[in-house]
Amino acid sequence: DVPKAPELRGDSDGPRRGSLCDRHCAAINNVQGDVGDLGCYLHRPRVPPAMSPPSCCQQHSDEVCESCVVKTTLTAENVVEANKLSNNYKFGFKKWKSHVTARPWEDRSEIVKELYSDLNVIRGSGGSTVTCGNVLYLLLFGWWLSLLYVLVAAMMFITIVGAPYGRLCWDLAGYFLWPFGKVIQKVEVPKSRQVLDACEASAGESSALLGGPVPRRWRPRCWADTGYWQRASTVMWLCLGYPALVLAHGLVCVTAWLLIILIPVAKLSARTATRVLLLPPEQVLVRRLRMTEVPLEGEVILCCYRAVNPYYYKYAVDGINVFAVNLLPLVLVTLVLGYVDSHNRLTSSPIKFTLALLSIMPLSYYIGMAIASISAQSNFAVGAVVNATFGSITELTFYITALIKGSREGNRCYAEIVKSALTGTLVGCVLFVPGLCMVIGGIRHQEQRFNSRSAGVSSALLFLSVGGVFAPTLFSKVYGKLVCGECHNVTQNPLGHYLCHNCHFDMMEKNGTLYYSHVQPLVYTVSLLLPAAYLIGLFFTLKTHSHIYDIHISDCHMPGHHHSAVVHWSRWRALVILLLSTLCMSACADLATEHISPILTNSTISQYFIGVTVLAMVPELPEIVNGIQFALQNNLSLSIEIGNCIAVQVCMLQIPILVLFTIFYPTNFTLVFSDLHVYASMFSVVLMNYIFMDGKCDYFQGTVLVMVYFILLAVYFFAPSPSGC
């Protein structure tokens, strides 16, 4: 345990109480900082009060105190979480908001505790149960579920032997019509003494002739002893009543779980199907709770007060967010439909393309979770290798499969779509991601500050990467020959104006001398320099100048409390999930590129717009959610770094990898972009650097970035399709 710092008491000779330096040193001695708390975390032995310094300013100058105040102390529950938090502030590492270890139960808020609690807790008077969510349950499930119980009860009464279960179904019909404020208990019902006495009397009968007990096969049947009627009733129930009710509750459970906010209803149905309906009917008691009554006798099985809880978006299963859990079956459906129905007999190509694109979102989440788990449980070298290898695997998988398909079909449109997606990712991560985080974070916090120096490193790398990526394009504009496909004389005068269409700069004149002799070597040179600059940036931010992030991670949760790390995913499990997710990602990307052709040929929307929006931003949705969560916690530095890191990786890693891929597998991809891509990217980077200049922002500046992004989207929407599409 970290000892508390001794209380500093000033005297007449020391500085005045409450001075700025004293407040700074109070921040220095603070050992319970949380995310966003200011102060240096000092591990030092306990100092006796007699030896404590009279004033902090005798030890620290004002400059030292100012330098300590800007350092941010992050508190983690354990060493693994501390490593994850530290990795979030490392350049080139994936930023991950969710916990990779199980949080201590006592540290969770009451709202979160309620999400994971079983529906068997009886609370005091919580007001009226007539709420909008409960009425929604009545309209969606309650009425027909109650009607089904009535029908099953009637059927069980008709069988006579199933009358006890019929009585149970009748009671449950009233319960499921409106289960709120009611309770289902398990009670122990003793056997009737009369039946027991009769059994004992029959067992003790003797024969007058033999003078001994009657043989067992001659005894009269004792129903209570053999349980004949109970077994017959149970068999009738399991054959006729139970299957129909289990199917109904299964349907309710799946539907409510997919709606997320109705997860309490899913828990209610699951508990009923697996527990209540399997109990003997005489042990189930359904009763209504009164305002002052708390039933103490018997075990409480179900007690529900609300059908809707809007906070279930925080719910996680084994560390996996409920949204990612619900979208996982979509991946299986996509793969089955895509590879089984190859001739589009069941669904059309646009539907398969949409399903494949949506399946990329949960797979991106699983890949991010696996990378964060492995990095947090490994050393720096392993974490750096994993992040560099799989950090951009989502985007690269789609780009490479699209280029392969375009090369096989001889269609240049796929290469243009890849360029549009690259530009869309760059523009979206520079404008939309930080702008949206500023707007949402600005709603809760009037003004947000961030580390302008660390953002400046990313901005410098962005300037370098954008200049390097578009250098071949600018070179071709200067030295290429403008060729137009069709020209018309507008004024009917040979010396008048001409209207030309489909104009582009030709680099293949004279057997491609300009391209193969000048442009292509420039592309290869840039593709070597950009990764080298990325490595230099890593070495600068992670080794020589790591202090610019001013982050200190404390692995002490609270003084006097230590928590061992209970990881959600071990390293081997995370590695297996990472490989499987990557494999499924490749399959979904293959299906998306396979079924995008009808959309490109039949759609009236520009192919530029499809690549810049759908193909670029859908794989980045998990990163956008992480950025928003960081911004809501007033940690805008990580929100900005998420967008900058992705944009830098697009230019310095993804594009050079694509160029390297074209060397071994020739495709139509060339590092020559359209004018629209060049202008949009450069303008976005300049605007982003202007906004981030002062190290603070508000929702208005975020609105500016978002509006500029939508203006660029409008330009792409009305732009004509690229040549060759």
TrEMBL record:
Predominant subcellular localization, coarse grouping: membrane
InterPro entries in the record: CaH_exchang (IPR004713), NaCa_Exmemb (IPR004837), NCX_ion-bd_dom_sf (IPR044880), YccF (IPR005185)
Domain Sodium/calcium exchanger membrane region positions: 352-470, 574-716
Source superkingdom: Eukaryota
GO molecular function: calcium:proton antiporter activity
Membrane topology of this protein: Multi-pass membrane protein
Pfam families: Na_Ca_ex, YccF
Tagged with keyword Lipid metabolism: no
Subcellular location as annotated: Endomembrane system
GO annotation, cellular component aspect: endomembrane system; vacuolar membrane
GO BP: intracellular calcium ion homeostasis
Record field: transmembrane: 135-158, 235-263, 320-341, 353-374, 380-400, 421-443, 455-475, 522-542, 572-592, 638-664, 676-693, 699-719
Alphabetically ordered keywords of this record: Antiport, Calcium, Calcium transport, Ion transport, Membrane, Phosphoprotein, Transmembrane, Transmembrane helix, Transport
Domain Inner membrane component: 132-182
Protein name: VNX1 protein
Organism (species): Cochlearius cochlearius
